[in-house]
Amino acid sequence: MDSRQQGFTMLEVMVALAIFSLVAIALLQTITSNVRTINMLDEKQLAGWVGDNRLSLAILEKRSFQASAVQGEEQMNGKVFYWREMGQPSPQEGLWINRVEVRTNASQLTPVSSVDVWVRAGSHASTPH
């Protein structure tokens, strides 16, 4: 009989399995992080579009933004977004800030997206009447 060993020892197999497991866990964490980031970026992009659409609609309707906030909700790509329109005087005289804040939850404190447009006071979709 040949006394030379063929194949791997149990220790070698266990070390290889441990290394493979660590690499697999690291890869899984990276993939999970990437998916979370992609979802967050998708949400921010859609929220920005909702804000842009609200500002564009106000300009097309020649509607003024009031100092008191107007709120509503809009669905985009199967997700519901909660927007809030408000106007406020700017620090620079003669300008008015139209702002749309967009949230993914009505009770969320920090908006996902905030879109500002500075317009001349007295122009359409700017100062309250």
From TrEMBL:
<feature type="transmembrane region" description="Helical">
    <location>
        <begin position="7"/>
        <end position="28"/>
    </location>
</feature>
<dbReference type="InterPro" id="IPR045584">
    <property type="entry name" value="Pilin-like"/>
</dbReference>
<comment type="function">
    <text>Component of the type II secretion system required for the energy-dependent secretion of extracellular factors such as proteases and toxins from the periplasm. Part of the pseudopilus tip complex that is critical for the recognition and binding of secretion substrates.</text>
</comment>
<comment type="similarity">
    <text>Belongs to the GSP I family.</text>
</comment>
<keyword id="KW-0488">Methylation</keyword>
<feature type="domain" description="Type II secretion system protein GspI C-terminal">
    <location>
        <begin position="41"/>
        <end position="119"/>
    </location>
</feature>
<keyword id="KW-1133">Transmembrane helix</keyword>
<comment type="subunit">
    <text>Type II secretion is composed of four main components: the outer membrane complex, the inner membrane complex, the cytoplasmic secretion ATPase and the periplasm-spanning pseudopilus.</text>
</comment>
<keyword id="KW-1003">Cell membrane</keyword>
<dbReference type="Pfam" id="PF02501">
    <property type="entry name" value="T2SSI"/>
</dbReference>
<dbReference type="InterPro" id="IPR012902">
    <property type="entry name" value="N_methyl_site"/>
</dbReference>
<dbReference type="GO" id="GO:0005886">
    <property type="term" value="C:plasma membrane"/>
</dbReference>
<dbReference type="InterPro" id="IPR003413">
    <property type="entry name" value="T2SS_GspI_C"/>
</dbReference>
<keyword id="KW-0997">Cell inner membrane</keyword>
<dbReference type="InterPro" id="IPR002416">
    <property type="entry name" value="T2SS_protein-GspH"/>
</dbReference>
<keyword id="KW-0472">Membrane</keyword>
<dbReference type="Pfam" id="PF07963">
    <property type="entry name" value="N_methyl"/>
</dbReference>
<protein>
    <recommendedName>
        <fullName>Type II secretion system protein I</fullName>
    </recommendedName>
</protein>
<dbReference type="InterPro" id="IPR010052">
    <property type="entry name" value="T2SS_protein-GspI"/>
</dbReference>
<dbReference type="GO" id="GO:0015628">
    <property type="term" value="P:protein secretion by the type II secretion system"/>
</dbReference>
<dbReference type="GO" id="GO:0015627">
    <property type="term" value="C:type II protein secretion system complex"/>
</dbReference>
<keyword id="KW-0812">Transmembrane</keyword>
